[in-house]
Design brief:
The complex is a heterodimer of chains A (474) and B (239). With 474 residues, chain A is an alpha/beta fold. Chain A contains 24 helices and twelve strands. Chain A is elongated and about 100 Å long. Classes of the chains: A alpha/beta (474), B alpha/beta (239). Bound molecules: iron/sulfur cluster. The site of iron/sulfur cluster has 15 residues of chain A, from helix 14.
Chain lengths: 474, 239
């Protein structure tokens, strides 16, 4: 039996938060990010206006999604791409497996595509007897370790070079190495062959341009460029919310994504692909795939779209900034979430995709500090959405003991005479509790196991006030 | 086809309730947005140039900014006095790195540079064998534009000999003209629209902004150049 996600979350959070090695690794990895990002932000004439404009463009795109999706599909097909629509993961998997089967594909190379993690595409392809290789270095490492990505932008952020070296030694038979450069070159060498042999390349997309029917892919390594250039089939899998209205919108979104996500002025490769290799019509291109298939995936995005209050969660461009600044993420680590999308934005959207009651605990795991909201390049009000999820969960399925507790509190709070009459008893109780503090006998153990209970003021405010007032009136 | 209709219908239904406008903080799910903010915002969405990083006005300032950016990106940049100087620099780099085979594409500016190296050339224009491109030490290509603001090179499948030549060989050399230097990203998208969007042939199937040599930080977030693409990017600017 699978444990409830909330129980797993608690268990894993407890152990990771106490793991000093994890903590220092994450601190070190993110330290450089903060400096570089802040340096980039100051180069903008106005970072805040840029964010506002981006959020306005996304608002327009998402709130007219039907119009833009139709436009995108029509243009893309006119460019020679084949557009497929999938309502959910199983449909998308079926479409992709069909294409691969019809085209006689045996080897698949993949560039980073979180949507494919969402629908467990790799497992399905491997089961169908295909060879599947992740080409993004971080994804490749976690694929070899048979674990999910730790962070949706930096998948192998939780590993040291020694661990990477060990994985390569075991799986690729390479010599151990202490140098990130050497390790990267080992992966490069392995991957070179795979690109040239692969029959099909599968990619995601960061943006889909309605105006021109293009997909835009952002990456640093060049693996997505190779994946989409060398194999004879290119399949792009993307969520329907990736739409941007105009090609020129990228002039804003590309630098915003690079700065917020990794503190870069621009990511190394920003490629816009509008179709397969072009031949004829006055244009003849030397290379590129014979076919481009674009799969537009819903998979519960319309459920989130139908909630006008939280619709803007679909503005997300998956930059990862909210993870990088989140104190909870840094303490509990990416794997603790147990979701495809980790961190604050994952906590907001996962309940919509996979069930509110089962995933509401993620929204409770927040200090509501708002660091995510202020980091978000498209200004999603992330921490308020966590509150919305909490409220919706309580509304949908109230907990009897929570309600009883609040009713009781309301009763005492309204009867202040009774309240003050009981205060001395509460004080005695509080002292008694001190004897058991942080022991399992303590009724507040869930809290006091790791924290101090706030003290009760003595004398209370009311008592102090009464004394002072008598001084004034005298 | 029916899936398309299904999904579009779901989208349409989902949108039947209007969303809060941005910045509307009445978190009760009832508000319908503040239209004065809407008009104000849609006004401001026209000109990203106003908020993106600063670019100078003169050619000199832009060249300096481009050079500074390429340095930060660890790309090579040479502002040459003429084509002969560019060919000379190419030969020097070639003999230093021991190039044995070059990939290039035909073009008035590009072919003479590739030929000046005096080593075997793979021309990609009319199609080529991937295995042959894989053993080339360098890809020499043209470009559509350079972007001062970001230090980027704008290439397309048309202007730069296809998709793979600028990413598969370990060294990518770009030869550009001074007039190809654009101030910023908005200008680059204007150029794309003008050059391809409005033409009868339309956009090339592949367009890319290349910003420095290929890189990764996937191991302990330490920067390593040459992840899957070229380890070196050299830009030669000629009059
Ligand atoms: S919610 Fe905002 S900060 Fe978080 S990944 Fe999405 S765009 Fe980035």
């Amino acid at each position: 039996m699978i444990a409830h996600p909330a129980a797993e979350f608690k268990e894993s959070a407890r152990s990771v938060a106490a793991d000093r090695r994890h903590r220092s690794l994450i601190q070190k990895a993110l330290g450089g990010y903060y400096t570089k990002r802040d340096e980039q932000i100051t180069k903008f004439k106005s970072w805040s206006h840029a964010r506002e404009a981006a959020s306005a463009i996304k608002w327009d795109a998402v709130n007219h999604l039907d119009k833009y999706l139709e436009q995108f599909a029509t243009r893309a097909e006119a460019n020679g791409a084949k557009v497929h629509w999938a309502s959910n993961g199983s449909e998308a998997r079926k479409i992709i497996l069909n294409i691969l089967h019809e085209e006689n594909v045996r080897r698949v190379i993949k560039s980073k595509c979180m949507t494919s993690e969402e629908i467990h595409l790799n497992e399905a392809m491997i089961e169908a007897g295909l060879e599947v290789v992740e080409s993004d270095l971080g994804e490749f490492i976690v694929q070899l370790r048979k674990e999910p990505p730790y962070h949706f932008v930096f998948p192998a952020m939780h590993l040291t070079r020694d661990e990477v070296s060990e994985v390569f030694e075991k799986n690729l038979g390479s010599q151990p190495s202490e140098s990130p450069e050497e390790l990267t070159m080992i992966a490069r060498g392995v991957m070179r062959k795979k690109y040239c042999e692969a029959d099909a390349g599968i990619s995601g997309a960061n943006f889909a341009i309605a105006e021109t029917g293009m997909i835009s892919i952002t990456e640093n390594e060049g693996n997505a460029r190779l994946t989409t250039s060398l194999p004879r089939i290119h399949i792009a899998l993307l969520g329907i919310e990736k739409i941007l209205p105009k090609l020129s919108d990228l002039a804003l979104f590309l630098p915003l994504l690079a700065t917020a996500g990794a503190g870069q002025p621009l990511t190394c490769y920003n490629s816009m692909i509008s179709g397969p290799q072009r031949k004829g019509g006055g244009v003849s291109e030397p290379d590129g795939p014979e076919h481009l298939h674009i799969i537009l995936l819903d998979n519960h995005r319309t459920r989130l779209l139908a909630d006008p209050e939280q619709r803007d969660a679909l503005h997300c461009i998956r930059c990862g900034a909210c993870l990088n600044v989140c104190p909870i993420f840094k303490n509990v680590g990416g794997h603790t979430y147990g979701t495809t999308y980790q961190g604050p934005i994952g906590s907001v959207i996962t309940p919509h995709f996979r069930g509110l009651q089962k995933w509401k605990h993620l929204s409770a795991a927040s200090s509501l500090c708002g660091a995510c909201t202020s980091a978000c390049p498209v200004k999603i009000d992330i921490h308020h959405h966590l509150l919305h999820n909490r409220r919706n969960a309580a509304r949908e399925k109230p907990l009897w003991w929570e309600r009883a507790a609040y009713l009781l509190f309301a009763f005492f709070a309204k009867n202040h005479r009774l309240y003050y009459a009981l205060l001395p008893i509460a004080r005695i109780g509080r002292r008694l509790q001190g004897l058991f503090r942080a022991l399992h006998l303590d009724p507040f153990f869930a809290w006091t196991g790791t924290r101090e209970l706030p003290p009760m003021t003595e004398p209370s405010f009311r008592e102090q006030w009464r004394k002072r007032k008598s001084v004034f009136t005298r | 086809m029916s899936r398309r209709a299904d999904i579009l219908k779901r989208v349409k239904n989902a949108l039947s309730l209007p969303a809060l406008w941005l910045g509307d903080t009445s978190h009760d799910g009832q508000g319908h947005g503040n239209s004065s903010v809407l008009t104000q915002m849609s006004h401001s969405t026209g000109q990203p140039r106003e908020w993106l990083p600063v670019v100078g006005n003169s050619f000199q300032e832009r060249i300096q900014l481009f050079e500074k950016n390429t340095q930060a990106l660890k790309a090579g940049f040479y502002h040459c006095s003429g084509r002969e100087e560019a060919h000379e620099i190419l030969k020097q780099i070639g003999s230093r790195e021991g190039w044995k085979k070059v990939a290039s594409h035909r073009g008035e500016l590009i072919s003479p540079a590739a030929e000046a190296l005096g080593i075997p050339i793979l021309w990609t224009n009319d199609g080529y064998d991937i295995a042959e491109l894989e053993v080339c030490d360098v890809g020499i290509t043209g470009c559509d534009a350079l972007i001062a603001q970001t230090g980027s090179v704008l290439v397309t499948a048309c202007s730069a000999g296809g998709r793979a030549i600028s990413v598969l060989p370990p060294h990518h050399v770009v030869i550009a003209r001074e007039m190809d230097l654009l101030p910023d990203l908005p200008a680059a998208f204007e150029l794309l629209e003008f050059r391809y969007g409005k033409s009868r042939e339309g956009y090339p199937s592949f367009i890319s902004f290349i910003t420095g040599p290929s890189r990764t930080g996937d191991i302990e977030r330490i920067l390593v150049l040459g992840a899957h693409g070229p380890k070196e990017l050299t830009i030669l600017l000629v009059p």
